[in-house]
Amino acid sequence: MTDRDSDARALAALARNIAGPQREWVILAEGNVSARVDAVTMRVKASGVQMGTADADDMVAVSIVELLRLIDDPRAGDADVARFFDRVQAAAGRRPSVEALLHAVCLDQAGIEIVGHAHPTAILALLCSSDAGLLARGSLFPDQIVVLGSEPMFVPYVDPGLELARTVRRLLSARRDTPRIMYLQNHGVFALGATAEEVLQIIEMAVKCASVVLGALSAGGPRFLEPADVARIDERPDEIFRREALAVARPRASWEQSG
Predict the structure, then answer these.
(1) In 3D, which of 136, 137, 185, 133 has the Cα closest to residue 164?
(2) Residue in 115, 133, 137 with CA at minimum distance from that of residue 123
(3) What is the Rg, in whole angstroms, of the alpha carbon atoms belonging to the chain?
(4) DSSP H or E stretch at residue 79
């Protein structure tokens, strides 16, 4: 088995973990995963494939460089994206998800090797509410800061595909650092990490945060930590050590061992 075959199997295992039966993160063909292969290529789940049954053959190799070229070309439109995906499908036998565009934007960020996209029920309850930006407004407890960082990113609703990828690319270019979590209004979350385990941890903590916020709303509303307290947790040597240790934790077994 080649390294690339092994990488595709590992990415498929991440997809199945995100769709684990004890979670409410994705159903049917919701969600997506991607991973950088090399400087110019990524693998991304094929369109229409269910995360819970994904296997290595469902992870399609796509050029990051060509996708970014489309995103950055103001003359390019949906028809250009469709023609590019047609070529990939003809060569690979699988069609990439339209969200491959946003995955390419995320994987273009320094230090990001793997991306997971999910639609957890608790998070969507807030992202589909009249106060959709609440999850990115502040930090509630120390472990949230350790896993999600101090500045999660909120993206107002944009039509998924080319325009969403362009919007996120513009928002990321204006930041001083890369977010670990992006909350997309009326859509879901993108977790950006260096390892598959880190991506799982990010989604898990984001789901917990959503549950805490929902509970706090029923008890008078959330009380966010003061900025100075958030910065202290974010910069403490012991918490930095814990963050780094978590990121390289032993990968968890997939809920399904096939693929």
Answers:
(1) 185
(2) 133
(3) 18
(4) helix 78-92
Give the sign of the dihedral formed by CA 174, CA 175, CA 177, CA 179.
negative
Alpha carbons 115 and 33: distance in angstroms, whole number: 6
Q: At what angle do helices 237-247 and 227-235 cross, to 10 degrees?
A: 60
Q: What domains does the chain contain, in order, with CATH numbers?
A: 3-247 (3.40.225.10)
C-alpha atoms less than 13 angstroms from C-alpha of 65 in its C-beta half-sphere = 5
**What tokens does 93 get?**
């036998």
- At 182, list the tokens: 């992006």
Q: pLDDT tens digits, residue range 180-210? A: 999 999 999 999 999 999 999 999 999 999 9
| Beta strands at 188-193 and 114-118: parallel, antiparallel or unpaired | antiparallel
Q: How far apart are CA 186 and CA 140, in angstroms?
A: 22
Model pTM score: 0.90
